[in-house]
Amino acid sequence: MASLISLLTGILGIVTADPPSPAAIAACSAIAKGTAETQLYPGDALNADYVTAKDHYWSAANADPTPACVVFPTNANEVSAVVKVLQSYTDVNFAMKSGGHNPNVGWSSTDGGVLISFSKLANTTYNAETQTADIGPGSRWSEAISALEPYNVAVVGGRIGQY
User: Which residues belong to CATH 3.30.465.10 in the chain?
Assistant: First the structure.
């Protein structure tokens, strides 16, 4: 399997990062035993969700770090479970990625650590009675705007809708 990954990365021109630390691998494995979807590097390095989570940032500098794994929680309980696991691995860096608009490297990206992507929590709902919108932490502005448009409601936020 390792030689296949090396061959594919060479053909596709992918720069491989240093292998994650044993502690990071252990943390990722512990998280993967829970309910949140977890994708490990390098095994899932060609998975579309992993690649998008790693590479899709407003600031290209944030795409350089390579996480040991990317976790995709789908609800608050899964986020809590991931954080509880990470409390046992205090030497493993982690980052939480919402839309990927933060320009500070390491705030929503991590090199060799655990990346928690909120992309599976990208829902927007509107309550016409209270005139309030609930915008999930993984939502992109373009998605929120599109979801609210049928209600003739606007939202104020970032100027670049895809981040």
Answer: 19-117
